Each structure stands twice: as structure tokens, then as C-alpha cells.
Amino acid sequence: MFSRFFIDRPVFAAVLSVFIMLAGLAALTGLPIAQYPEIAPPQVQVRAVYPGASAAVMEKTVAAPIENAINGVENMMYMDSTSSSSGVTEINVTFEIGTDADQAALNVNNRVKQVENILPTEVRRQGVTVEKGSSNFLQVLAFYSPDERYDDFFTSNYVTLNVLDRMKRIPGTTNVQIFGAKDYAMRIWIKPDRMAQLQLTAQDIAQAINEQNAQFAAGKVGQNPNPAGQELVYTITTRGRLSTPEEFENILIRVNADGSSLRLRDVARVELGSRDYDFRGKVNGKPATLVGIFLQSGANALAVADEIQKTLDQLQPRFPEGLTYAIPYDTTRFVKVSIREVVKTLAEAMVLVFLVVFLFLQNWRATLIPTIAVPVSLLGTFAGMYLLGYSINMLTLFGMVLSIGIVVDDAIVVLENVERIMHEEGLKARQAAIKAMKEVTGPVIAIVLVLSAVFIPIAFLGGLTGELYRQFAITIAIAVIFSGVVALTLTPTLCVLILRAEHKKPNRFFDWFNDWFARVTKRYVGGVKFMSLRPALSLILFVGMLLLTAGLFKITPGSLVPAEDQGYYIWRRVFYPMAPLWTEPTKWWKKW
User: Fold this and answer.
1) What are the angstrom distances between the C-alpha of 502 and each of 323, 327, 365, 367, 423?
2) Which one of 119, 295, 413, 547 counts the least CB within 10 Å of its CB?
3) Chain centroid offset of residue 19 CA
């Protein structure tokens, strides 16, 4: 008999359970933590820039050729594109769930390269970027000056030079970007009236700038082949690209026959400014530079957030005086609260289960057995989750809350049968455990198989719903399997070691409870007899419950996951034609 082996070898049974617990504890430290499982399909983003182009021009000359090339790429579900009047086209390609994001990005990039040569020259010069998209928004960091000593132009460039690279090197981040980065750029504001007087076009000015603001390799002096006796070789260095507004102002636009010249400053105003002004970020009314951080698939959100906080704490002493940071949007705050509440519920469920067990068994020794056996099954569940690549999230923890009441049943089945045999037949704990396991080994295995047959098929559901609830169902199935193993190995061993011949001691409360429960049981049995003699009434009630369930199912609002208030809101105002984006994540109590 399988259980007899462990009854005769209690140390081996204990070591096996300790091994399961250690494996679960080790997996617990390596499991990623998130609010929900990874359910979003992978995305690849294609971005092209055509400075000065309208939305219609972008759609015809940039978006259309790229879309035609990408269409039909492997495992593609759909794509959507946006062409704005700021000269930017963004195409998001969504792929089937389970598609490798790296391979998808490579396939899209290959398609884009096929049509890159027919795109406008300026678009090719700016470059078409293809990168993996991420919907796992982790945080938004805001860098600003409380006394408005620095504007967002200064803070954006400071963050780009001193902070952005450090954030990108943090393990677990997949994309770190500044929203509306105001990179330094030489802004040339042309004067149309002066250009009309001098018969110039914007193309003339652009051509002059491109010709005179360039980097050239000037060559070398004395390079082979050279005359005899030439020993030294000199590399010629020349002035490279222009870097100051004054240098740009001196660019020659035209030289006349009489020796007079026309320079850029005569037809334009030159200043060092931002590359674009389409985005404006604010935090509590202060101009701010907003940095978005996206979480890598499968990464631990809480660990990554903690590492970001440590990095910011290290960088803050180096900030210029008057510059600080805030984290107005942080998804991990809600994750922490959610996980804490579910863990609290998990602890409450365990306490309630053990109180109920003690109430019915009325023996602290007997209650101690499921108290030891249940944690072994729960910790073993974490090891199974780790092997399957799952995460600690709302659904897996909720599955463990439900599984507490299920996994305790196997231990109680074994325990009650051992206790019954001890007191009805007067056997010692060891003989009673051996006899009890001969009777309940089959039923315990049947319990595991039936419950597994209920939950495992959910793993084969497709679509977003299947992805969402798969981890919930499989977590319960894993817990049930481990509870069966523990019930056949550790539980009978504990019965032998813990149970004694004495039975429940007389107690006024337990006597009252047993009397009350016997009366409730008698009424229940009477109700069952009453209904069994009236099958027509039972059928009518059953059909009525089905109709009521169908009606409630029809009128109850449906959604993928319940909507929960996470304590923030994001709003934006759009102005035509510049369309700057204002983003002010704030606490809900500051909304009004």
C-alpha cells in the first residue's frame, strides 16, 4: 500500500513535505508580481517623421506605403495608424497572443525596409524606427522646479543627459521615454515678406543650410604615395557642423556679382530652442518633464519600482538646486494594496477554516494535523506556478483563497476516518491509520481527479478570457494535486504521531453545538425526504432557478475584469493647430 510506506517511514514523509515547502519558498522569491496576468497581445510600433508635412501628406506619402508593406505579416491581427499635422506617423501592429515580440518586430522591420527607398528623402534622413510596443505602463516620473526656476526646456534636456540612460539600464524596464522631449534644436524662423522681396524660397534656404552645415573629411597631408624623404603624415581637421545661433546667422544664402552677400540673418531669426513644442506637461500647475516607464513582460513590477526609487534617490543629490522629482502616476501603488488585501483575505480564510475544523472535531490534536498539512499544499502551489511561468497576481491569489477550503478536505477525510476507527474499534493510532488509508486512498485520489477535471479544462480556453482565467483555474488544480499528495503521505504520518486514544472531552459549549447541529441535520434530512416525495415540485423549483439565473446573467453588466478606482485620472486638452498635450495625473481628491 502506498501510504503504508510513509507510515512506516515518518522521517521520509516529513522530508518530502519539507522539500515541497522549500521549493515553494524558493519559487515565491522568484515569481513576478503584477495586478493581472499578461493578457495584452504583443504590439510593434513603427514611427516615421516628416518635418513640416501635413496629416494628408503623411497619410499619402508615408503611412500608405508602410501599411501596404506590413499588411499580412506573420501572426498579425490588425493594425492602426495615426498621421498628425506635426509631421509624425505612428503605426501600431497588433499580433496574436503568444507571438514572440522580438520575432514580430524583426518581421515588421524587414517589411518596412522593402519600401524605405520610396519614402520621401527627409523621412529616410530622419529614420523610420521599428520597436516593440508595451502596454505595461509602470510609472510616470515628473521632473520639475517647485519655484519655477527652470522651465521644461531645461529640465527635459537635463533629464535626457543625466537621468534617462540610468533609467533604461534598470532591469525589468522595456521602454523609457520622455513625453514630448524638448531636445536642443536650432530654430530658424523665416520672414516671408523679406523672402518675397529678395525672390527666395524655403528650398533655397534649406539648400544653403545643408551645404554649409555639414561634416567633411578633409583628408591628410603626406599620405602615401609621397615624395622620398616625407616621414610625417598630418590629418587635416576642419570646423564641423555649426553649433551656435551666430554661426547659423552667418550662413551665406546668396553672393551677388558686385561682392555684396545675403546671409541667413537677413531673412530669418535664429535661436536655440526645442525640437518641437507639441507637448506640454504639468504637475500641480508647474511645468514639468514627464518620463514614462514601461514594464518588461514577466518582470516583477514591485521590484522594478523599488529599483527605480533607489536610482532616483541616488541621482537626486546631483540635481541642480531647485530641481526635484515626483511620481504622480504609479501602478504599483494599487498593486501593493490589492496584493495586501488578497493576502489578508488568504490569512483570514486559513484562520476561519481551522476554526471550523476545531469546532467540528473538538480536539486540538486533530485540528493541528490540517493546520500543518494545508500550508504544505499552498507552498507547493507556488512551485507549480513558477514552473508554468505564472505570476503572483489577483487571480492566482484569489485561486489560492478558494483552494484553502478545498485542500483541507483531503486531510479531513483521512483524519476523520483514522479518528473514527480509533474510537469505534479501539485501535492504536498506527493500526487505525493503516486501516483507514486502505479505505480512503481510492476516494482521495478520486477527489483529486474530479476537481482537476473541473478546473484543468479552463486552461484550453482561447482569447483574452482564456488568458485571464487560465492562471486562476490551474492554480486551484495545482493546489488540489498537492493536497492529494500530502493527504497520502504526510497526513497519515501526522495522525500516527499526534493522535491519542482520548476522545473529545466534555464541554458545555460543544455539547450545545452538537445538540444544535443534530437538530439542524434532522430538519435537513426531513426536507430532503419531503422534496424526494414531490419530484414535480423539485423540477419546477429547478427550472425557476435556471430562468432566474439566465435573467440575472442577461441584465448584469459584463466586462473582462471589474473596473476599480485606482485613485488617479488623466486628462488632456487639444488646441488646433499646434495641438499641445497637457497631462496632469493627480490624486482624486485634487480633482475638484
Assistant:
1) 73, 62, 10, 14, 8
2) 547
3) 31
Residues 6+ apart with CB under 8 A from 304: 138, 170, 171, 172, 173, 295, 296
Asked if 99 contacts 110 with a C-beta cutoff of 8 angstroms, the reply is no
Q: Cβ neighbours of residue 211 under 8 Å, at least 6 residues apart?
A: none
Per residue in 540-561, pLDDT (tens digit) is 999 999 999 999 998 988 776 6
Count Cβ neighbours within 10 Å for each residue of 473-495 and write b for 16 or more, e otherwise: bbbbbbbbbbbbbbbbbbbbbbb
Amino acid found at 574 = V
In the chain, CATH 3.30.70.1430 sits at: 41-134
- Alpha-carbon distance 514 to 385, whole Å? 41
Rg of the chain taking only CA atoms, in angstroms: 36
Give the CATH number of domain 2-36+342-551; options: 2.60.120.10, 1.25.40.10, 3.40.50.300, 1.20.1640.10. Answer: 1.20.1640.10
User: Is 4 exposed, middle or buried (CB count within 10 Å of its CB: 0-12, 13-18, 19+)?
Assistant: middle
Separation between Cα atoms, residue 367 and residue 355, nearest integer Å:
9
Where is pLDDT greater, at 349 or 48? Answer: 48
Residue type, 188: I
Sign of the torsion angle spanned by Cα atoms 284, 286, 291, 292: positive
Say which CATH class 185-274 falls into. alpha beta
Q: CA 504 to CA 498: how far, in whole Å?
A: 14
Amino acid 567: pLDDT: 64
Angle formed at CA 23 by CA 17 and CA 26, multiple of 5 degrees: 140
**CA nearest to 487, candidates 8, 27, 13:** 13
CB of 437 within 8 A of CB of 4? yes
Cell of 414: 483521512
Q: Sign of dihedral through CA atoms 155, 161, 167, 173? A: positive
Q: Is the pLDDT of residue 108 over 70?
A: yes
- What digits encode the pLDDT tens for the residues 497-530? 888 776 556 678 888 888 999 999 999 999 999 9
